[in-house]
Design brief:
The protein is mainly α. It has helices at residues 77-83, 94-103, 107-120, 125-138, 141-153, 160-170, 174-187, 194-207, 211-224, 229-238, 243-254, 260-276, 280-294, 297-309, 313-326, 331-341, 345-351, and strands spanning 13-20, 28-35, 41-47, 65-66, 69-70. The longest helix has 17 residues, at 260-276. Bound molecules: zinc ion (ZN) (2 copies).
Length: 352
């Protein structure tokens, strides 16, 4: 696979687009090449190759070889090596080499390089992640998941189970996501990702309404990694009804020097909880502090809500109007303005 030349004028071509094919099967993708001199375009249809490479699989199309011959493309293992130019892969950094090929649009060769490398070094997480990222960009969610699931069985590091869990969670497969995190914790009980596995397991459990398990997992994640304030935030959102616990968690998280963005999210939670308790002054202080940090729409809404609680209805209406100006579809702000206009501001806000 040398430089690609234009079929009309033989000038060099460059890649302009890598995209799924119209039939939407996640077994091949299209690479669009464009001639630098005559602007002619053509599409190279590329098989995805093996998701989890194995010695008996065609490097080009991923199907099983029969007597060292692919029944789909007709290549032997030696043919594929020649076709993809695999004799000159730099030994010191094959993954960096492949990523560079991917950036140049040479996806098909990049995949062949990564798959060849993974055959002898399945423990190289970076190589799996480079494939995973390529599949994610293509929008091949099924193929990506299949690869991540097969990778650990093929010798990939257990850490890939975390990526697998996240992919499953994103698809709403919460039970399977929980299992992926459990598998990770079984395989590496003191691994570097265990706090993340527990926190994510908590999120999956929460999505399945298994609140006690979620709480236990958040607590354990925080114990393991007290400075990771994202774990607190998920925990706080789970136990909002329990104001004492939630406020205690917020203070604990704020003591960990979170990023301004995270600090703002924590202060928004604080404002929300105080507003639920009809404590307008505390709710306003927290919302103002959050708004100073992030100028977020939520902080602004919470400011308006706190002002309404304090009976400062004109200011409350101003804040809500500002929210709507930034976010015309904000139903909460629209409802708030209606209540304020109807003169129901203070009372109804409290009972929210
Ligand atoms: Zn041309
Ligand atoms: Zn083949």
């Amino acid at each position: 696979m040398g430089p690609v030349k234009c079929q009309s004028c033989r000038s060099l071509c460059e890649v302009t687009r890598i995209a799924p094919l119209a039939d939407e099967a996640e077994t091949a993708f299209g690479v669009t090449w464009r001639c630098a001199s005559c602007a002619e375009e053509f599409i190279d249809i590329c098989p995805l190759g093996p998701l989890v490479p194995g010695p008996g699989l065609c490097l080009n199309c991923g199907v099983s070889l029969v007597d060292d011959c692919c029944m789909d493309c007709g290549m032997s293992a030696g043919d594929a090596e020649l076709f993809f130019g695999l004799w000159d892969i730099p030994e010191n950094d094959p993954v960096g080499y492949a990523v560079n090929l991917l950036n140049l649009g040479r996806a098909r060769r990049a995949l062949a390089v990564l798959n060849t490398h993974l055959l002898s070094a399945p423990e190289d997480a970076d190589a799996w992640m480079a494939k995973s990222e390529f599949l994610r960009q293509l929008g091949f969610a099924d193929a990506r998941l299949q690869m991540l699931r097969g990778a650990t069985a093929a010798g990939a590091p257990a850490a890939l189970l975390i990526s697998c869990g996240i992919a499953l969670f994103e698809r709403g497969q919460f039970e399977e996501a929980m299992q992926a995190y459990r598998d990770y914790l079984d395989r590496e009980p003191s691994g570097e990702w265990r706090a993340v596995a527990m926190g994510n397991l908590g999120n999956a459990a929460k999505s399945l309404d298994r609140f006690e398990l979620a709480e236990t997992m958040y607590q354990r994640a925080i114990d393991l990694a007290p400075s990771e304030t994202a774990f607190y935030l998920n925990y706080i959102r789970l136990v909002r009804e329990d104001a004492v616990l939630a406020l205690e968690l917020i203070e604990g998280a704020l003591e960990q020097h979170p990023t301004p963005e995270m600090r703002s999210l924590l202060l928004e939670e604080k404002s929300f909880i105080y507003a639920e308790q009809q404590n307008g002054l505390q709710a306003l202080a927290a919302a103002e502090a959050a708004f100073l940090l992030s100028s977020s729409i939520t902080a602004r809404y919470l400011k308006g809500r706190a002002l309404a609680l304090l009976g400062r209805l004109d200011e409350a209406r101003q804040e809500m109007n500002a929210v709507l100006a930034n976010d015309p579809g904000n139903v909460d702000a629209a409802r708030a303005i209606k209540m304020l206009t109807d003169g129901l501001g203070k009372g109804l806000f409290g009972a929210n």
